[in-house]
Q: What sequence folds into this?
């Protein structure tokens, strides 16, 4: 699976042992009594979405939830807890009872900026959660307004080099994944953007459509509707392989830029100390749902790639991304 190519088999195996501890792992109670009948008949589970209804996370949860519900034989309600750049919902998830009845998004790498940025006052960190798995992934793209004078990514980056600090780039939050990705591009390609932060992905896309900013960065699914309607143009996919949703759009590598692929994983976690048998049951249900052909077709319709990654592999990836991105976040916070 190309989304985890940055982790070699050996490195991944070596990381898992550490990650299981760092991410709460399977380190909760091992009591089979507590988990043998999970979930009990008539139970209601909450899938926490730390954002507004209608956004990408919410849409995908509502695609997945019925299939997860059918496998578990219990009700699964999608619950939106928006605010604080996702921190309100993530705090709620981290502080929920570790009984498997509450799970939710801890997307990698977007969650990193939520707790590594002290100004967000998050009441959680990586150790607060046990990953269940990731059911989908999203390539990162760069888009411009339909009337933009920039027709190619080279034209855009050449303009940035000609006028350092002048070309505006939109993100969905300060110290979030968009911001981190832009800083990586600046470092790797010797660029200098004028970075503008918005309160949400929806606000960012709206600013791009209106022409308020020169370009924006984010996941394919965030821009796909506006791309199909012709309101924006996508200049590049930051990957070494073409996106199945945008086969006509050149990759950053094919345009001549050597940057490591950028991807978002739609990861789901439970609070740490959740019994390992409960985690395993939820992981099985989430994996089965992600492999359902009907679900996969709906995910495809939302411009999102069905892409199963186990809980242990997400633990390792989360730890690796934190090690890579913490210095970037620390640096950008010092510049504020």
A:
């Amino acid at each position: 699976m190309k989304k985890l190519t940055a982790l070699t088999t050996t490195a991944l195996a070596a990381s898992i042992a550490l990650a299981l501890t760092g991410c709460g792992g399977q380190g909760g109670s091992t009591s089979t009594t507590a988990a043998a009948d999970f979930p009990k008949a008539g139970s209601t589970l909450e899938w926490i979405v730390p954002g507004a209804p209608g956004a990408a996370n919410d849409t995908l949860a509502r695609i997945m939830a019925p299939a997860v519900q059918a496998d578990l034989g219990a009700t699964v309600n999608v619950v939106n807890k928006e605010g604080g750049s996702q921190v309100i919902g993530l705090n709620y998830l981290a502080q929920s009872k570790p009984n498997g009845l509450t799970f939710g998004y801890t997307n990698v790498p977007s969650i990193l900026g939520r707790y590594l940025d002290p100004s967000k006052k998050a009441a959680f960190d990586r150790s607060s959660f046990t990953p269940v798995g990731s059911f989908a992934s999203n390539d990162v793209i760069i888009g411009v307004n339909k009337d933009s004078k920039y027709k190619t990514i080279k034209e855009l980056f050449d303009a940035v080099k000609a006028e350092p600090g002048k070309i505006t780039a939109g993100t969905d939050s300060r110290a979030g994944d968009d911001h981190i990705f832009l800083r990586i591009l600046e470092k790797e390609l010797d660029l200098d953007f004028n970075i503008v932060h918005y309160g949400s992905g929806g606000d960012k896309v709206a600013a791009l459509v209106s022409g308020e900013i020169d370009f924006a960065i984010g996941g394919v699914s965030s821009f796909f509707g506006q791309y199909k309607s012709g309101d924006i143009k996508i200049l590049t996919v930051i990957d070494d392989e073409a996106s199945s949703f945008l086969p006509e759009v050149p990759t950053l590598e094919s345009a001549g830029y050597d940057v490591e692929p950028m991807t978002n994983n739609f990861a789901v976690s439970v609070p740490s100390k959740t019994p390992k048998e409960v985690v395993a049951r939820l992981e099985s249900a989430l994996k089965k749902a992600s492999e359902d052909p009907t679900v996969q077709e709906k995910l495809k319709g939302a411009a999102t790639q069905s892409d199963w990654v186990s809980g242990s592999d997400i633990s390792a990836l989360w730890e690796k991304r934190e090690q890579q991105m913490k210095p970037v976040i620390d640096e950008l916070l010092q510049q504020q």
Q: What stands out?
A: Residues 311-334 form the longest helix (24 residues). Strands lie at 44-49, 75-80, 102-105, 129-145, 168-171, 194-197, 215-219, 232-237, 263-271, 305-310.
